[in-house]
Structures are given as C-alpha cells and as structure tokens.
Amino acid sequence: MQTAKSLKEYKRQLQEALDNGFLRGTLDKFAVAYPAGRAKAFQGIDVEALVAEIAAAKDAAIDCLDDLYHQFRDNAAARGIHVHLAADANAANRLVAEIARETGCRRIVKSKSMTAEETLLNHHLEAAGLEVTETDLGEWIIQLRHEGPSHMVMPAIHLSRHQVADLFGEVTGSPQDPDIERLVKVARRELRRKYVEADMGITGANFAIADTATLGLTTNEGNARLVTTLPRVHVALVGLEKLTPTLHDALRVNRALPRNATGQAITSYVTWITGPSPWEGTPAGERQMHVIFLDNGRRELARDPTFRQVLRCVRCGACANVCPVYRMVGGHQYGHIYIGAIGLIVTYFFHGRDNARNLVQNCINCGACKAVCAAGIDLPYLIKEIHARIQTEEGHPLPNRLLSLVLENRKLFHGLLRAARAAQKPVTGGTAYLRHLPMLFARQHDFRALPAIAARPFRDRWPALRPSVAHPRLRAALFAGCVQDFVYPEQLEAAVGLLAGAQVGLEFPDGQSCCGLPVQMMGENDAARRVAARNVQAVDPDGCDVILTLCASCASHLKNAYPRLLADDPALAGRARDFAARVMPFSQFAAEVLEIPAEAFQAGGPRATYHAPCHLCRGLGVRQAPKDLIARGGFDFVAASEEETCCGFGGTYSGKFPQVSSQILARKLADVEATGAEVLITECPGCVMQLRGGARHRGMGLRVLHLAEALAERLR
Amino acid sequence: MTSTHDMRQLFQAKAEAVSAVVRTVASPQEALAYTVELCHGKEACQLLIAGCGEALSPKARELCDLKPQKVIAAPGLPPAEGEALGRLCAARGIHLTDRPLREHLAGIDIGLTYADYGIADTGTLVIDSSSEQLRLATMISEIHVALLPLSRLRATAYDLEAELGALMGRAPNYTAFITGASRTADIERVLALGVHGPLELHILVWEDK
Ligand code: SF4
Ligand code: SF4
To answer: Does residue A298 surpass a pLDDT of 90?
Structure first.
C-alpha cells in the first residue's frame, strides 16, 4: 500500500523495493514467464476481437448502470436476496457490521475481494469487535502480516516460503518447514477450523447478472464455495461495475479473465449463486443472503466521458504483469490498494488525490499494459490524464511551467538549445558526451553517459543536404523532433542519404518544433495542445504524401495524440487528422513504401540485434519492418529475448525516476549482451540515448545505432 | 462443428492438463466399483486427513481426531446405485455415510457425485450443487469422483447457456463449474493442489446413448 507523503519519500521507498533481492528475482521470473503462458492460453482465440467484444458490452452496461442495479434488485427480491446500495466505503462497511449485529454473527470468514480491500472492510469489522479471517491463502498470509496485497491476483507474491514458514510458525505455535506443499496443508487445516466456527461468510463477486440476480465468483482454491456454504449468512460486497445484463456477458468475460490473469483456460471453480440455498446446519435455521453494491464514485465515473472506461476493468491484474516499472518495484510501490496501471488510475477516484499524486508520475508510458488489457482500456493515456487533472486542481509545478513556456515558443526553445551547446564545452572536453554532469542533473543520473548537444543542428545542415528531385514519385516532409535535430542530426543525415536516388521529394518544414510529448508526459495538456497546433500549422498535410519521422516516440505522439488533442479546435481538427494520417515511421516507409532492396547493401555485416521501441511496436504496431531492413542490410540478425520490453528511457521519466530507469536499462542490456551482438539497432533517438549511454557507462564494446545510421553504413 | 469424438478427446486433454484423472468406464456400475477400489487402494499414509501430519495448532488438531475410518459420501445417486455402492463399500470395510456432511467437516475420503454437464474446451464439469450435502461432498473430500454420461458433454460454455439459464431460473440455485482439483500458487507462484477442496479429481465417463 503506497502512502508516501512526498515524492521524495516515495523515491526513498522505491529504492528500498529496488534493493529487495527476493522481490526483484520473483518479479523478474514472473515477467518472463507470464507472456508465454498467456499466449498459450489464448491459442486459437482471436484475442483482439474478444477484447473488443468485452469492451463494447461493458460500455453498454456502464451506460445503464442504474437500470441494471434496479433490475438486479427487483429480481433479487423475488429470490429472497437482500440488496443494499452503499454510497461510499464507510457506508458499505457499516452495512456489513449492521448485518452482523442483526443476525448475531461474531465470526466471519472471507474469500478474496478487491472491493473489500478498497473499503478497508476488515479494519472496520475488527474495530466493531468481530473476528475476520481471510481464507484465500495469499490474503490470509498478508492479513496475518498486516499488509495490503502486492498484486490483485497474487496478493502475497512479494513473500518467500521462508517468510511464510516463519509466519505460520507463529500462528500454530510450532516451527514450520519452509516446504510449500506442507505450508499449504497447514493452511488447509488451520482455515478449515475457521469455516466450521464462522457464522458469516463475506465474498466479492466477479459478476452480478441482472436478469437472474445471479452472482458469479471465480476462485482456484475453492474457498469461496466453503465461505458461501458453511456459515448461515452470506454477504457479498460488489462494485456496481460488476453488474452485467446476462449470463452470456459473464461467460464472455470469463473467457478472457483467467487466461489474461494467470494463463489458465478457466479457474478451478466458477460458482454461480442465485439466492440463498437451503441451510442444513440446524433444523430450524435459514440461510440469509445479502448483496451490497458499492458506489464509491462509480456512478459519477460512469458519467465521465474520459474516465468511464476504467469501469470496464475485470481485475485480471495483467496490466501489472507486463509493466516494466511494476516488475522493478512491486505492488506495494505501484498502487495504493488497486495495483498496476489500473491502480494508478482508480486510486485517484477511490482513495483520493493525496494517494494518487506520486503514483501517476511513475509511469514510463510504454503502453505494455494497454496492449494486454482484457477490457481494452487505454491505460497510459488515462494515467497521464489523471496526472494532468491533479495539476489542474493543485497548480502546476514551476519546472513544468517553465518547460511548457519554452516548448510553446520554438524560437526561445531552439535559442536555449544553441546557448546550451556553447555552455556545455567545459563538460564535454570535446567528446560527444558530457564528461561531468552539469549541476542540473543529480548524481543519480550517472547510470548512463549523456550525449552532448551537436555542434550544428540538423536544421542548419538542411539547406546543403536538401536533394533536388525533378519528378518526385512521392513527396515526404521530414519531421525531425528535437532530439534528432539537436543531439543526433547524423541520424537524419543518414536517412537523407538512404533516400537519395529513390525519387522522393524531401522537405524539412522550418516552423516545426518539439512534438510536445515531453509536456504531455508531465501532465501539461494545454501546453501539449498548443505545441501540437504549432506543428500542424507548420507542416502542411496537403503539401506532402508522407510525414516521415525517424523518432518512434514523435511518430506515435503525432499519429495517436494529435487528433485527440486538437479535436475541439474547429480550425485545426480536420487538418490534425490529415496530418496524423500521413505520419509514418522510417522503417515502414523504407521497407514497405520504398521497398529498398537487399541489393542496395553489402553482404556479410556484423552480428546485430534489435530493440523494439515501445512507441513503434505497440504505439504504431510496426513490428516486422525494422527487422526486415536489418536483414536486408546484410547484418547477421539475432533476436534478443524480450525484444519489445521497454529500455527504461521514457523521455522525462528517466529524469524523474532515474533509479527505476537505470534498473530497467540494466535488464535490457543484459538481454542484448546475451545475444553476442556487436551492434544494437533501434529506431528511436531516445532509445539510442538510453542504450548507448548505458553501454558506454558499462564499458561494453557494443555499438548502438539508429536503424538509418546502421543501414547507411552498409550501403554499397 | 467438432465431432463427438473430438469433443471427448478435447475434454479429456483439457481436464488432464489441470491434473484431473479421466477414465472411460462401461457403465455406472463400473464407476461405483472404481470408486470403492480407489478408496480401498489409498495408501495408509494418505489416510491421514490432508494436513494432519503437519505441525498444527491445538484447535486445528482437534478436527484430526474425529475421523474413525475411511468414508465415502455419495449424495444424489439414484437409489439403486446408492444401494449397489453400499454393498461394495461394506465388502471393503468402507463407511458410506448418509449423515449430514456437516458432521464430517474434518474431511472424508471420497465424495462421489454426478456431473450435470461437461464443457470440452476447458475440461470443466458443471454441477448443480444447490443441495448443501452435494456441495460439501465435492468440497470436503480428499478425492472427488464425478460421473459424467457423455451425452452431457458440450463444446463450450456458450453451448450451455439455455441449460444454465434454466438452472438459475429455478432459484435458489447454486451451480458450480469445476475444473481440476483445488489449487493455489500463492506462495512463490509454485503450484500446490488441495488447498481447501479436493486434492484429486477423477472424472468417469461412459457412452450412454
Ligand atoms: S504504460 Fe508502461 S509503465 Fe505505464 S503503467 Fe502501463 S505498463 Fe506500466
Ligand atoms: S485494467 Fe485491464 S489489464 Fe488491468 S486489471 Fe483491469 S482488465 Fe485487467
């Protein structure tokens, strides 16, 4: 449970997590194993179509949440189920305590429920003098340790068998063998007694089916079945978003949920409960069943055009499983109660701004979560939107305001870059790197060598480079982005060289500036909008067939974010869409449009591997073109494992959380090193900066090149 | 459309993938005999209720002392099959209980039940468990033996929507999808079977048409 009061405190806690060897090892193994298990479970299923169906059905349910609630309530009443609606967490907790009092219950067994975690139900019930026992093994373990979950599906993933053995030793009063099979059996016996004694069972629900008033519960352990069978009172605490019109909706979600969560085709148990089944505990006794629906901001969320999609979440936990930051720091640092990308977002709504403020800054924007989400939620976008919203509410920090101001004014920005080049001389010592980091950077940035600003930006070199093509087959406008323009102009020069002879009419529209992603990453939406407007005005989409970009991050931002950013600008919305439609990354242009042939290159190149930039493979869906070009370029290509995992750059992210960035980078470079490649090729200047700086810092003999540079070297 | 044969193979493969045992028998009678022999053949050490060999707290240990002999519960069997099972059990010295299973919460050796349906693409059993007896038999047993006439097999859960809808329409209803034994991976992501429910699931199928 993340509760740091300040960013500084948060960073200190992040460091502690990064230093936890067991946690790092466990999450690393999981991160590598998960994608393979997931892929296997989805074999033969059209995942994209399934996710789209789930998203559409969920959206339709969110549209009529109140109606579904009423329908469920009426059907439930006819089946002897008591239905309650709790406005917030407190109301829900009070209701449960009241039901316990009215029915004379003192001992409670619970099966796993994130909703009950959300309301901190156990604390409340214990304070009311009730005994509460979690029966899901992982939940029981963390309950005994007085901790929150560190993963939504595997709540105790942060603990080792030795820690569990010590804990069970305390609980049973006899020392325990740290053997997992045996520990599980100990839990079986200890918890069986709890079921026998309990008079109330509390569950959550994965589904609340309105047309039959049926609850659906998925578990692997089977504990929910005992919880709903042995005690005479069953209380289910259910988020309103679990309401769904029909059984079919639930079955559909259940095709994706277990596969996405743990790579299982289905969980061991799926339980469908429609009303209180006969009670056979005492001759005269009767079973009672209560369903408490929790609002806690959900109905308001359902009306929010931007954020309503968070209610689609089916709590599979996959967004944490693939998150490079989660992998480094674990769930206690990557969520307040809800964990992972979705946790970063819903913390703001369910647990307030104070708990969300630090968390939402700790997203590198790699898009891995969005790519696996069972409900098709645009998680990275929403994380940035929360960040922006918090800044609107609290005021924008000074560094953000300065950066916004600078980026919105191209002349000022470029003037500053030129001035910085002059000022950096003392620290570069004539090399291409900053030898000592200017005071602007903390010592923490020392994990990679940082490049110096180039002597002459690309825009100054352009007039001499501009090819003159009499009858162009295509007209392309080059969008440089600031890193290539001012730090790595040679990458653009290499591309210009590669296009020579291809009959492409190339232009470099002068008014272009930074794409605006850095300010968007800092939650500065207004600045991002104004920068987008400048660029859309500077590059006339009607004057070109393609807007060619060698920076994957720029390309993805131009293509995916510009139409959205300018959608409400009547003068520019249409132009922004045309602009976005023409944006194309370099590899796609070279491989698929120009079809540069293998004959253009010398054979027998060195062994090379590839790093897929997040914004290229997931942001733009371009996966094969760069690798095809590497092969055509005569390189001896060998794929690195986890090719599509983030390098840890994330633009301003690596400046804000250098300790996390450096660890992600270390993993990446280890995977690259394992290939034995001499050359590492990628297609984003930000990735080049991170990877080249990291390789140099470690003294690796690896050359890190932009794809354009790598190919230009191999030209015949 | 998948053929019945394919569906059955898929069912078996999927169920076995989650460590269920699937056996084809000639008739329900053979299934009863299988169950009794399974119970009889359980190793002496496995007679201990799961977990009772471990270091437990005194209160949890009390439950371990309640179990006198091997016990099978078979709620919901047709009367003739129940009687046949009773004879087989008696011959092997096994107690076939007809007492409320709440008196056996320490655990029983085998719970024998019919399954209402099977779902091939996930290897799942569908069991209307509205009766508490039947529900407990599938939960507190060390081994759950389920009987599935093959005419009850469907390709996917979607193909059972009408039947499930009918069950849910007859409230109160408690319907279970059961796939493999009770499992957990909550400690170090290492798979362990039998955390709360059965340690083993045996599925006995036969051609009934
Ligand atoms: S975008 Fe990447 S870093 Fe951000 S939450 Fe999603 S997976 Fe994690
Ligand atoms: S946001 Fe998506 S991936 Fe994350 S838990 Fe929810 S459904 Fe699963």
So the answer is: yes
